[in-house]
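User: ok so my PI wants both of these folded by tonight, can you help

Assistant: No problem, let's get them done. Here's the first:
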Amino acid sequence: MSGRVGSVGVALTVGVAVLLSGCGKGKASVAGKVTLDNRTVRSGQVTFVGSDGTKHVTLIGFDGRYSIELPGGEYKVGVGPADSGTTKMKMMPGARAEGPGGPPKGLGAMKDPTGQVRGESVDLAKEAKNPVIIPMNYRAPESSGLKVTVSGNETFDLPLKSKG
């Protein structure tokens, strides 16, 4: 009798593992760099929407890089500013607001929210004078025209263009 219970337990374990893995589709590491007209995009988020409508979001680091674990499949991709609920940036000690013509009050040097760029920070006063602004057409995955097919660990750089 105990042999029968053991085989049922093994079958149940295998069945649960298949269900949790998305019917046999494992997750893959996907990474890349986001640029706009060959300039590094230093903040924001990349959103992947699967064919089933499932949304996966990751932050862009100060070095323009993103990484995420995704199940295999086809995705529409959007790039835009980070949602307020997604971003967790902290002011560095000693950061101060700039004078007239500088960034909004309260901005200074900030740490990378993704933790990808350790020990480095971006001078927001300098960035504010010549910002990289992602065009509206890239912000919605459904209409951006950006698509990727994930079948394993892959790199998908996202070289965006202002015009064209």
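One down. Here's the second:
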Amino acid sequence: MNKKFFYIFFIVLISSYSINAQTYSDRTFLTPRKQNQNLPMMHTTWHELQESFNENHVGGSLQATAFYQKSDNQKDLAKYFGCYNYRISEFQDFFAVSYAAFSDDTYHFAPCDIFHSPDVSGQKLADKIILRPSQESMGIHLGYHQDLNKLIDGLFLKIDAPIVYIKNSLGYTSTGGSVSQSAFSWGTYSFSGPEYSVLEFLTGTATSTNQSALTKGKWHNGNSKTRIADIDIAIGYNFLYEDYGYINASIGCTIPTGNKPKADYIWESVVGNGGHFGLYGNFDSSLQLYKHDRKTIDLIFGFDFKYLFKGTEKRIPGFKESNLDPSYPNITLWGLYDASGETGKTGVFPAANVLAQKVDVEPGYIFDGMFEFAIGWKRLLCELGYNLFLKKEESVSIKSWNNDKYGTVGYNHNPDINFDATTISLDQCYKNIQSDDLLIYSITTPKVTTHKLFGNVGWVFNELKNPTMIGFGASYEYPKDNNALRQWALWLKGGFNF
């Protein structure tokens, strides 16, 4: 009966949220749920071990949880990082370059849009590159709990510190034949030299005499980091601690120890919360529903409520089109890869190189709540539960931008002469990028709602001199929208009291 209930519950949950789900697109940045925001993985089995203290112990409890998790919603994430093609009213999960772009709105760029050249006969560059982003992570989540009864009866300290390896990938594949063309030199009309493909442009290896390589917002099929994913420290108090249940609460802070985004890559790997200090509160409770002859059933409920404060990161906003063709709607199609120039300087560069800006980011509140049924029989403990995760939409603002300094170059612009962003013409500037043109939403992770079902099987050996536990568990997380990871996780944990 229980299996049928949870199966029906999960199907209804997925169906209802799929109907109301929102599809986001044209984003260059995503902040997924972090590895230190995972109550089910940290709480299971360990809560039972912590009840096994005796007078001979110093009151310490330590656990280590090895975990692996991987996302499986590549197509949804592809639309998030892809674009909504307003010309044909379609969400697109690819990047397309072809000379046909002059007449076919399916394509995003003509070759001269990214490799600036007036040589029509050299317009060979073409490819269609499909995105399938994913994330995998693994690590060891360390947890420490220390009772402070000698100071104040019921007082305790707890510390969490996950050591995490994260690998993000855009999962791109070339499907258009990877047609290459020479990197042209406009001023000398010498159209010979190394040939580059669209992929080489996107990965930052394509350059020429007058055009710089892409240095920001590069594509990758594997960008990884290994760090401590922030440290949580809290002081708590047991308001109730009886055989039939307990109630406790704690308050603490999050100390950022991970890396900050640098905007070198689209969806770069960030361990921790991006360098934001935070405050949080935790509530934890248990009620014993049944007990007979070493058989128990407990209902456990708890949550974390965290607030992350403003900090500085580096992100790449999109921008609005277009000075020369006002009939276009507001959004560019992959505009950060447009060939661009700087007022008073010669040469051409991809727009992303200068769009990468320092921004103020305030993540705001995060709610991580769970309830579970824990069924105990002798040393065995089986747990099955549900986890709700909520994250506020980020508040993002760009620190500064110089108007009339940058713009996308006109098709006939000669990169040997100084660029002028204030002169709107095919011979100079196609789009003057002003501060009001920068699209804040493109670097803002919207509010997140995810649902997780989890299970864990553990053994607690209370009769040992130092009570010990082992356990293993699994979970599956399902987001409401396409701005979060749909992912599965496995973990193996062990711990002891002393």
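The chain has a mean pLDDT of 90. The two ends are 40 Å apart (CA to CA). Good luck tonight!
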